UniProtKB/TrEMBL annotation:
<feature type="transmembrane region" description="Helical">
    <location>
        <begin position="327"/>
        <end position="352"/>
    </location>
</feature>
<keyword id="KW-0812">Transmembrane</keyword>
<feature type="transmembrane region" description="Helical">
    <location>
        <begin position="130"/>
        <end position="148"/>
    </location>
</feature>
<feature type="transmembrane region" description="Helical">
    <location>
        <begin position="47"/>
        <end position="65"/>
    </location>
</feature>
<dbReference type="Pfam" id="PF07690">
    <property type="entry name" value="MFS_1"/>
</dbReference>
<keyword id="KW-0472">Membrane</keyword>
<protein>
    <submittedName>
        <fullName>MFS transporter</fullName>
    </submittedName>
</protein>
<feature type="transmembrane region" description="Helical">
    <location>
        <begin position="71"/>
        <end position="92"/>
    </location>
</feature>
<feature type="transmembrane region" description="Helical">
    <location>
        <begin position="364"/>
        <end position="384"/>
    </location>
</feature>
<feature type="transmembrane region" description="Helical">
    <location>
        <begin position="270"/>
        <end position="292"/>
    </location>
</feature>
<feature type="transmembrane region" description="Helical">
    <location>
        <begin position="304"/>
        <end position="321"/>
    </location>
</feature>
<feature type="transmembrane region" description="Helical">
    <location>
        <begin position="239"/>
        <end position="264"/>
    </location>
</feature>
<dbReference type="InterPro" id="IPR011701">
    <property type="entry name" value="MFS"/>
</dbReference>
<dbReference type="InterPro" id="IPR036259">
    <property type="entry name" value="MFS_trans_sf"/>
</dbReference>
<keyword id="KW-1133">Transmembrane helix</keyword>
<feature type="transmembrane region" description="Helical">
    <location>
        <begin position="396"/>
        <end position="415"/>
    </location>
</feature>
<feature type="transmembrane region" description="Helical">
    <location>
        <begin position="104"/>
        <end position="124"/>
    </location>
</feature>
């Protein structure tokens, strides 16, 4: 019997009996995480607002292509929206850091919702094509919702790296879940109801969720006092190298999606593309939740290098599965490859939080997301180019090479990175 186990003495008849009273099991990391007052409330609002992030682009493509009969136009409109987001999002995040989440995120979300509704009306009333680009570009003001939530966790658990690790793991799992369910919900709404239903429901969810999130003022990070004009986090030592890692990592995701869709279409699995690709998101979501239960050890930079090394190895799975021509084998390989995604993103975001001052945290994380989106666009283009030149099987070399590049950039940039304790 352990020495620290409480003993209770009692009488049973004429015999003194020792009874062991077991200590209650300590709560798990996720129970401790959500035991913080207000954590569940702001998380609920954040999830509601985050689900449309996986809905809008799919809904826009279905709506525009269905009404205008042109996938080229639909793709061009969403591409312009992505480019506008890359330009506007860091500025929006900088305003959040300067004036507070509620004061900036709510009006910015309102502008984005008006942009979505404007796109819906332009498509419905057959206005000129340029109006579609203008309306969808207005959605670029949508705040980085995941970044807002991560900033709250960083404020609530400052000085507690283990709790922050669990929080980042949960946020990454939530990202994967929303981006996995979002397109499915959008396709269902647009096909079962009417083409504009996905955009309409997504706009309502975004505004409702953001209002619920912003209403939780007790957990909102305070605005840091600033002495004069503050430089952008991109000027900080080592952060440019870290953004380059995010850029290369985004290329892994973008190329994997394009190549997988082409492979499935070539082998008669086009209608199952969404289901097969969901295996990668499922693997990432599962790994993210499990990773959050593990207490991290060693330096963050070394952990990131280890995660990128694992990603490089696991990305060879789809390459090998493609040689078999089996959709089942590809789904299994994508499930395993996805398991490296969440740990890599969790560790990368943790490192961003370490190198970015608290007063610029939203901007720092938004810059990382912007780099990731840029990488996704570049990876999609590179994957499509290789497919045209060498075939879909060879196309799976692109995510392998992109993961290896991210690993090399991480190792090369670690010497220049200054990490706060």
């Amino acid at each position: 019997m352990p020495n620290d186990t409480p003993i209770v003495l009692g009488l049973s008849g004429d015999v003194l009996v020792a009874v062991e009273r077991r200590q209650p099991r300590p709560p798990g990391p996720y129970r401790r995480l959500f035991a913080v007052p207000g954590a569940r409330a702001f998380t609920a609002g954040n999830i509601v607002a985050r689900l449309p992030m996986g809905m809008f682009s799919v809904s826009a493509v279905i709506m525009i292509a269905g009404q205008r009969g042109s996938y080229a136009l639909a793709g061009a409109v969403t591409a312009v929206g992505l480019a506008a987001t890359a330009l506007v999002a860091p500025w929006t995040a900088r305003m959040v850091d300067r004036y507070g989440q509620a004061r900036v995120a709510v009006p910015a979300t309102a502008i984005a919702v008006l942009g979505s509704l404007g796109l819906l009306l332009c498509v419905h009333y057959d206005t000129p094509d340029w109006t579609l680009f203008a309306a969808y570009a207005a959605t670029a003001t949508t705040p980085n919702i995941g970044g807002l939530s991560r900033a709250r966790w960083a404020h609530l658990h400052r000085g507690d790296p283990a709790a922050l690790h669990t929080a980042n793991s949960f946020e990454q799992a939530a990202d994967e879940l929303c981006f996995m369910l979002g397109p499915v919900v959008a396709v269902f709404l647009c096909s079962a109801l009417f083409p504009e239903a996905g955009t309409l429901v997504g706009a309502a969810l975004l505004l409702t969720g953001m209002l619920l999130f912003a209403a939780q003022r007790a957990t909102e990070p305070p605005v840091a006092a600033r002495a004069g004009r503050t430089a952008s986090p991109v000027r900080l030592p080592g952060i440019r190298a870290l953004l380059a890692v995010f850029l290369a990592t985004g290329a892994v995701f973008g190329s994997m999606e394009v190549v997988s869709i082409a492979f499935l279409d070539e082998h008669g699995g086009g209608p199952l593309a969404g289901v097969v690709l969901a295996f990668q998101a499922l693997g990432s979501c599962t790994a993210g939740l499990l990773y959050g239960r593990v207490r991290p050890a060693g330096s963050v930079t070394r952990r990131l290098a280890g995660c990128l090394a694992a990603m490089t190895v696991l990305m060879t799975g789809p390459l090998l599965a493609a040689t078999t021509g089996s959709l089942l084998a590809l789904a299994g390989a994508l499930l395993l490859a996805g398991m490296a995604t969440a740990p890599t993103m969790v560790t990368g975001m943790t490192l961003i939080q370490r190198v970015t001052p608290e007063g610029s945290l939203n901007e720092g994380m938004t810059l990382a997301v912007t780099a990731l989106l840029g990488g996704i666009a570049a990876g999609s283009a590179a994957g499509g180019r290789v497919i045209e030149q060498a075939g879909t099987g060879t196309g799976y070399l692109v995510p392998v090479c992109a993961a290896a590049l991210a690993l090399l950039l991480c190792c090369a940039g670690s010497a220049r990175r200054v990490v706060r304790p």
